[in-house]
Amino acid sequence: MSPDDLKKRTKQFGLRVIRLVQHLSNTKTASMIGNQLLRCGTSVGANYRAACRGRSKAEFIAKLGIVEEEADESAYWLEMLVEANIVKIHSVAKLLAEANELTAIMTKSRQTAKRK
Questions:
Q1: To which H or E segment does residue 28 belong?
Q2: Using one digit for the tens of pLDDT, what is the confidence trace for 31-51?
Q3: Which of 7, 38, 63, 76 would be a feasible disulfide site paired with 51, CB 3.0-4.6 Å?
Q4: What is the CATH code of the structural domain delimited by 3-115?
């Protein structure tokens, strides 16, 4: 997958997170979890773009680490929404799978960059 493909994919992930959060109930718990998810979910694409513009290999690797953390945190908050019975698993299963896939991609990319 090319960097441009990943830029599009991470941006789409953020947009999907935005749409999900917009449809959450207005309870205090849903709002709190939604805000956390919104922050990390939209951060995935922003930090991936920053990584691609890294001025050095070390900066690229560090930014990929941030992307990895934000994608994993997104998965965590999606799991919390399900386990707190705020949303049904079937409504976020694909988004959760994407968060886990992005985490795996960034982990592998970071490890590869470190070896080179």
A1: helix 28-52
A2: 999 999 999 999 999 999 999
A3: 63
A4: 1.20.1440.60
Q: d(Cα 67, Cα 44) in Å, to the nearest integer?
A: 5
Could you count the other beta carbons within 10 Å of the beta carbon of residue 84?
Answer: 12
Closest CA to 67 of 116, 21, 7: 7
Element (H, E) at 24: none
Is this model's pTM higher than 0.70 or not? yes
The mean predicted confidence, pLDDT, of the chain is 97
Name the token pair of 42.
Answer: 């939209």
CA–CA separation, 70 and 111 (whole Å): 17
What tokens appear for 3 in the block? 């960097």
For residue 55, give the H/E element and its range: none
User: For tokens 């990929």, what's the residue?
Assistant: 64
* Greatest Cα pair distance in the chain: 48
- What one-character DSSP code corresponds to residue 25? -
